[in-house]
Amino acid sequence: MNILLIEDDAQTADFIAKGFAQSGMTSTAVADGKEGLEKLKSGAFDIAVVDVMLPVMDGISIVRQARQDGCVTPVIFLSAKGSVDDKIRGLQAGGDDYLAKPFVFTELLARIQAMLRRSQSFTPPTQLTVADLTMDLLSRKVTRAGKRIDLQPQEFSLLEYLMKNTGHIVSRSMILEHVWEYNFDPQTNIVETRLCRLREKIDKEFDRKLIRTVRGFGYVLE
Prior knowledge:
Blueprint: E1 2-6, H1 10-22, E2 26-30, H2 33-41, E3 47-51, H3 59-68, E4 75-79, H4 84-92, E5 97-100, H5 105-120, E6 127-130, E7 133-136, E8 141-144, E9 147-149, H6 153-164, H7 172-179, H8 190-202, E10 211-214, E11 218-221
Helix pairs in contact: 2-3, 6-8
């Protein structure tokens, strides 16, 4: 097993690396976020252990960018920030697990083994379907009731995010973070504009409307 360790604290990195070696695993340690992102995206590792607080680029940003670029390597976050909100933020960014510091190495090892079992039995879907709406993630083809729907790249990303969260309300800020990767000025209407165009293509010609506005909360596809 080959593990990528992205950790800037030398003492912690040495402790973890020795534990991996004693467990018969090989590991590569890097200390800054930029290098860590490049190695994670390389696809050369079975799993990545990523500290949240890093120089150059923080761990949350590393994993979010890697997921945007198609990286599926399982990731476990390590962080001194152990609140529920911190854990949710890490998981929503694309992490598979989150372990708060200080920790016992045997727990980290057990979590890694569990993640690997799950990843080996799981194949990421290549097609999303909601009612009569279908999205092929490989060909980037979208159809509704068999009719081809042509989408611009941002419209495709927005619809993909809504479909992956079918039945769950997603807020305007969540859409900005996951589809556009960063926050816009609070006064911008980019989300509303793109959703309006998406509705024109997805819902206008059909009696059943799939995209719904939940006033005061956000949007839901159901």
